[in-house]
Amino acid sequence: MADLLELLAPQLGDLPRDSTTDKYLNRLSTLSLDALQNTEPPSLAQSSHSTLLSLQALSNRSHRAFVTSSDNLSTLCQSAPQLTREAQQLREAIPKLDEEAVNFSTKYSKITDNAALERRKKAMQLSRNVDRLSDILELPTLLSTAVSAASVNSGTGASSTTYSSALDLHAHIKRLQTLYPESPLIQNVASQAEAAMKDMTSNLITGLRAQNLRLAAGMRTVGWLRRVAPDLESAGTGEGALGAIFLVCRLAHLVSTLEALDPLRELADQETQKRLGKDKSDPNGPSGGQQTDRYLKRYIEIFREQSFAIVSLYKNIFGSEQSESELAISGLRGADAKSKPKPAALDDPMQRVPPALATFPMYLVQLLTDTMRAYLPNVRDRTSKESLLTQLLYCAASLGRLGGDFSMVLTELSEEDDEDMAQEWEEVMRKHRALAGRLEQLTSRVPAH
């Protein structure tokens, strides 16, 4: 190889030596004379042409970068010394800046009434806690969104999760209010949260008026109300005002359901006007009370179903708190209540408020008897009237299973001088007791398994 380099030295001139040159010269020393003359020149020409094309393509793509690099390289000789001088100036200024900062801190650290420093401290503290403040400010919006979503999905499984999330958010806001009672920001957030919780309370109370309210949904709703509005649970009774609210809501649903019978009631009113406008001694009137019979049958059917459901739901939801209610409802059955001893807490009427269920069955019975007293005289067919009276007895027995039997109250439907009505009542009661006796005998004969 040294001989080859000596032979090629005149042609290479001052070409720098590197590893690539050495590798190529080593490769040339291994080639034959024929390859050097015929194969290597075309190969070198092809490689040179390929490299030229690559350089041309690179120049076309990156010519701007090349121009910029060239310009920066031309100014590098002036920029580097300037950068060095400015870095030296900065290094010399840092100790002086540090000294001034220490002097400033020492001078103003003991001053507490400087308004500018106070504003700066508050601004810096606000800057450090901006994320936390943003999260706190978003709490009322999140709470309102959760309440709205729960009201839209009322009656579904999603409402339970949404209401629980809303209650958790409200509890978090209450904790913040306890930790920072004097903060205007927290007070504002708490006031907005209270407004949202009032909307939630309204939605929950409206949910108690839903049609076909089930026991599970009722217990959940009452449980949420106890968390949202704890003030409703007064110390007077176990259920507080929640029991009264529940009964009022279910009563509103009962009244709205009965109002759906208004078309039949209007026909019954027409028959009432005909009855009052003709001679009562005439046994054959223009109307025998067929429309009134239809109205009363449907009325009693709805009343029986809904009254039983209301009292049953109340007892199941507030059942563990109704030791007094059992005694109060038993007053509908006459002497049974007198035979039971009253709790000492009930001796003083100002000491404890009676439970909501104490007078509610009597109100239901009054609602039923007023309707019967107004429309039952329209029914002149004896069979139809006996059917209605029997239906009333079954309704009384149904509510009596929950301690609200009002069969004896029904005897007041007939007037004192109405002997026919009294005889009909007597006949219906006799048949009803006979049927009940036969059913009891059949039940007693069934062998126990």
End-to-end separation: 117 Å
- Sketch the major β-sheet: none
The succession of helices and strands, N to C, reads HHHHHHHHHHHHHHHHH
**Into which percent range does the helicity of residues fall?**
over 70%
Q: Ranges with pLDDT <50 over ≥5 residues?
A: 322-346
Hey, roughly how much beta strand do the residues contain? under 5%
Envelope shape: elongated
Tally the helices: what do you get?
17
Radius of gyration: 49 Å
Mean pLDDT over the full residue set:
78
Class inferred from helices and paired strands: mainly alpha
Number of strands: 0
Label this structure with key terms.
449 residues; mainly alpha; 17 helices; elongated
Task: Give a brief outline of the structure.
The chain has 449 residues and is mostly helical. Helix content is 74%, strand content 0%.
Description:
The protein has a domain at 238-278 and 285-445. The protein has 17 helices and no strands. The relative contact order is 0.05. It starts with a helix and ends with a helix. The longest helix is centred in the N-terminal third of the chain and has 76 residues, at 33-108. The model is unreliable at 322-346 (pLDDT under 50). Helix 6 packs antiparallel against helix 7 (157-179), helix 8 packs antiparallel against helix 9 (215-228) and helix 11 (262-277) crosses helix 12 (290-317). The chain has 449 residues and is mostly helical. The protein has helices spanning 2-12, 19-30, 33-108, 115-128, 130-137, 139-152, 157-179, 184-207, 215-228, 240-259, 262-277, 290-317, 323-329, 335-338, 360-375, 382-400, 419-445. InterPro entries: COG8. Keywords: Golgi apparatus, Membrane, Protein transport, Transport. It is found in: Golgi apparatus membrane. Belongs to the COG8 family. It is a peripheral membrane protein.
